[in-house]
Amino acid sequence: NIMVTPQEEWGQGMKQEFEAKYNITVNYVRMSSGEALARIRAEKDNPQFDLWWGGPIDSFVAAKQEGLLEAYNSPNYKNLLDPVKYKDAENYWVGIYVGTLGFCTNKDWLAANPKAKAPASWDDLLKPEFKGQILVAHPSTSGTSYTALATVLQIRGEQKGWEYLKAYASQVHQFTKSGAAPAKFVGQGEAAVGVVFSHDIVNEIENNRLPLVLTFPKEGTGYEIGGMAILKGGKHRDAAQLWFDWAITAEAQALGPKYKAYQAPTVKGVKLSHPELLQVNLIKYDFQWAGKNKKAFIDKFTNELAGTANLK
Description:
By secondary structure, the protein is of the alpha/beta class. The chain folds into two domains: 2-98 and 225-284, Periplasmic binding protein-like II (D-Maltodextrin-Binding Protein, domain 2, 3-Layer(aba) Sandwich), CATH 3.40.190.10; 100-222 and 291-305, D-Maltodextrin-Binding Protein, domain 2. The chain contains twelve helices and ten strands. Strands 1, 2, 3, 4, 5, 6, 7, 8, 9 and 10 form a ten-stranded mixed beta sheet that branches. α5 (143-156) packs across α6 (158-171). The radius of gyration is 19 Å and the shape is globular. It starts with a strand and ends in a 7-residue tail after the last helix.
């Protein structure tokens, strides 16, 4: 039983590939990482899932801290491109993909507002023309949005960062539950700009032909390492370990683009589908800090800046 956080199509595809290879039935539920962590936390005395696959590792750092994960020393850690960066030092989680945060802007909206330009910095999001024109997920439900929040705090420092976030929250038209959803809604014309992982924006442009332009903030952007972990107390440990080992092979990670997932791999031997998504100004994102402060920062954002009523 697997908790899946990336897009449904990729999760479904990986389930089918694993079942065909190993003849083991996989059941999964798809939830954004904030919701997934809340569910795993609520079920800790009677875990319903054996493994958690995908979603930014800040949530996995938080889950480890709460004693929800089980350490596992996989023989396939040797495949990792960077074992220090892509694995917990005590083997509680491993990275299975990398994704960078970007902005998507509706081309039709730009054409109708010729004085406006697609945002190229975090400051640009505060421009008057984007008032009520921004869609982003809520950090309580979405790892994408929490990555954006933690990126801003790391670039600006906490005091200036929270001042910025207050202004940023007041520009938002509506918060969504899912991190990838704003790209779809902006592409459909519901708002001008979305803050989304770049691979999700590429998916909407290439596969759904939505009129979007992808830009990155010049002062630096955050990124996710998508995580995976075996959950403490799961009932099918052998099958969970088999999936875990398989997911950090080149064979499994090369499947992403087949299911419209364009994240970069964490293991050797996989050709990048979109190398340009990594050729941007990345900040030195501190995953441990972001994970340890996740609950406090989300509570502050929810209580002081934007509540969770009416999430789209």
